[in-house]
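Dear Dr. L.,

I hope this message finds you well. Following up on our conversation about the binding site, I have prepared a predicted three-dimensional model of the protein together with thiamine diphosphate. For your records, I am including the exact sequence and ligand specification that went into the calculation, followed by the structure tokens. Please feel free to forward this to your student if that is useful.
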Amino acid sequence: MTTYNDFVIRFANVNGSGSASANGMFAKALFRMGIPVATRNIFPSNIQGLPTWFEVRASEKGYLGRREGVDIMVAMNAETYEEDLASIVPGGFLLHDNSQGGDRRLNRKDINDLGIPLSKLVQSEFEDPKQRQLFKNIVYLGALSALLNIDFEIITGMVSAQYKGKDDLIQPNITAMEIGRSYAHDYMDSPLPIQARASEGVGNRILIDGNAAAALGAIYGGATICAWYPITPSTSMAEAFEQHASRLRVDPDTKRKNYAVIQAEDELAAMGIVIGAGWNGARAFTATSGPGLSLMTEFLGLAYFAEIPAVLFDIQRAGPSTGMPTRTQQADLLSAAYASHGDTRHPLLFPASPKECFDFAASSLDLADRLQTPIIVLSDLELGMNDNLSEPFTWDDERCYDRGKVLSRESLEEISEFGRYLDIDGDGIGYRTLPGTHPTKGAFFTRGTSRDEYAVYTESPEAYTANMDRLLKKWDTAKTIVPTPEIVNGDAQAGIIYFGTTAMPMDEALDRLSDDGIHLDTMRLRAFPFGEAVEAFIDQHEILFVAEQNRDAQMRTLLVNELEIDPARFISILYYGGFSISADTIHEQILAYYTDHNLPRLKEVQS
Amino acid sequence: MTYVSKPEIHHPLLKVNEIGLNRRNYEGSVSTLCAGCGHDSVSAAIVQACSELSIPPHRFLKISGIGCSSKTPSYFLGNSHGFNSVHGRMPSVATGANLANRDMYCVGVSGDGDSASIGLGQFAHIVRRKINMLYIVDNNGTYGLTKGQFSATNDLGSTSKKGAPTLYSPIDMVSIALQIGAGFVARSFSGDKRQLVPLIKAGIMHKGFAFIDVISPCVLFNNHAGSTKSYDYVREHTEHVIDADVVLPHEEITVDYEPGTSESVNMPDGSRLHLNKLSNDYDPFDRVKALSHVQEAQERGEVVTGLLYVSRDPHDCHEILDTTDIPLNALEESVLCPGAGKLADLNQSFR
Ligand SMILES: Cc1ncc(C[n+]2csc(CCOP(=O)(O)OP(=O)(O)O)c2C)c(N)n1
Ligand code: SF4
Ligand SMILES: [Mg+2]
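The resulting structure of the complex is given below.
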């Protein structure tokens, strides 16, 4: 029986062997055929020589989370061969270079052998050793197009577009692809029973990585300054910002830049630059990952107390620099929420798709200005660095930036007295002034908390306490303006709470659970602090699962701590192995809970 | 109509500058530093310099790190915004502030602990980036605010108040600034107003990064016999190289210094920097010679003061980045946001 548009293919390559572009084209071809795809780069902290994997999941149903088990393995790395072989599902396919001859399935006779003499084929066609290496990737791409029945013209079209202007590169690439394609046609059972076919599944969606999306959102949101220090997986966000800005933010007449990007000397400086810029009225952001966040915490504290707008993107990865820096996790939650010294708390945003990276990048700049405080957007490697299917970006031209409470020269003229930290509106947010606004009014000296409401130096306990209490009031205001959770409420007894990329496999997990008679209401958290809707959802459900990608159940801690809820009410669904959480994990853990606790399932009730 | 005759102006503080302000308009709140602290003299020199330059006080940014020295921006330019930031990190905050609005003058004040220890990395990098600002280090060879620990600018063997000698070699901020390529490098002494005020004026008018290392004795912890940053030591071991004065475009050239040749440099706004050579073999345009001159003097236990180096062709970070003339914080939403139409094209490019 042939199945269409439902497979996981994994390419096992050696880092630096030039496979990325061929693999990327493969995924894009499926996407252009209208098939929903998800891509995952699994790469080492290394530039050349170590193993790297690229996984593509095609799913007509639109299941885009990670799924265990590989249907087709393109095994191009001798070093990981055995491990790669083991990951293939029974009945799956192994594509490999059989130039040395022989069936290389070893003990896996339950899988199908797709041997192609890649080295021999390139050897006879190309002279240059470098080309030979590169075109091996292109040959297997050609073979796959035949095996999976991928529209060949889509791929050749992509080659022509990719090498536009470098015509001498187009022909050899197409030749290499044709070699693979004819080999598969002539010597293999093409196409396979696993196939691709044109679909309407993609609709008008786009394929983009979360970091590029966030960078574009920052442009649309009016960020003019980006200060950063290279760290995987956040680097591509700063680079994308510069790239987008060089096209979208250049003065049409003078050709000069309406933005500034500074690659700082470290993350402390990156955050300092953002804070200096925010203090002086420019929208600024930085992008980093866990270790960088650690270095920025002193500045985050100052910005919290001195009430300075700032935006920080933390593209989370697994632990320290010698942890698993190229793997994904949601494990910076607590260190971001309470970053720094003293009583500090920071609003967090949890994007779950490139569209939300775009939206939250723009709205975080508004929130930072409105709340006069750092806003941390918690993305992760899974979302940030992989091409993800996403709703297209939208922008309302009627929308106006919310620059928050900033007094102009005219309003300074009108008011009788200015007090930077006076809570005039009762929302805990004072009015600020920007340097240079007025010759005699509105200047103030910015420091932490050793000041009164007029920004005059004091170490009085009353002034300190009053200020700290006002900051709490501001926190309450934040609850009412940060993005609300996405809730699907079907009056189930149990609910599941999750956020960020844990959303990716959720639909699939829920469908599988529902097949098992377990129906869950869902709440996808989109921001911290938690507003009323979050509390209501928790109140409404007897059994509550919290799914997240860290060991210590950090979101659960945050919910327990902030909403003063009995910890026993939350059941943790955890995965922290460094890949993204799969539907299998969520499904198995919840099923096990139901079984262990003899909880009724819908099917049983009905029977 | 009644005529009230204006009171006659006697006091020099009340003499008005070209924009009708007197020195009081450039002062800040009352200092809370120790009586006799060198840092207060530096603040006073900043007040005088800014007033003489006739720049409206609200056009300045004052940024500092943490320390007694870093508190001082409270004590000058009360009508300017100031930011007492994080220990050792003033350079990054100043960088962000300057990127946000290139039209503001920026004065940064730091200490030797702030800039030569915890902030040495940021100091080096702000020099490289040529942020348009005057960066002053109130150098007292000690951590005043944490009560007298050694700082990294202490000369080897100089002693603490209790007599313990410094064990490690010193960091000379001036040499570092010269080496990395600051466009304006000077050293002065808080007790030498005649030299310091013109240097501050020149530093403010300099385009790009201007650095002044001001030896500024700490009367509490570093003004004793074994210290090389005490009032007495510095007075006895100073060699003046170059005096400077800024001559504003519309001002008569009235500078008249001691004998020796003089040179003038055009400043970006049309004003001229007037240099007066006191030491015949000193060339303030030669960075490499300046570096060796400073280091040779250091070997002899002498402190060279004055304008050590000024670039004939100064640049600043905005020029390097090629940012627009309009301050980034003043760009309109219509300029910043590419709009929905453009976004439709962008979406298409991701298909
Ligand atoms: C991160 C951090 N570490 C330590 C301190 C404590 N501290 C405050 S001021 C200071 C030294 C200041 O020395 P310097 O910059 O020379 O200024 P001075 O007081 O001598 O003018 C230190 C270590 C701090 N504020 N922050
Ligand atoms: S301790 Fe030293 S540096 Fe600090 S105020 Fe007193 S004299 Fe000045
Ligand atoms: Mg000091």
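In brief: The first helix of chain A runs from residue 19 to 32.

With kind regards,
A. P.
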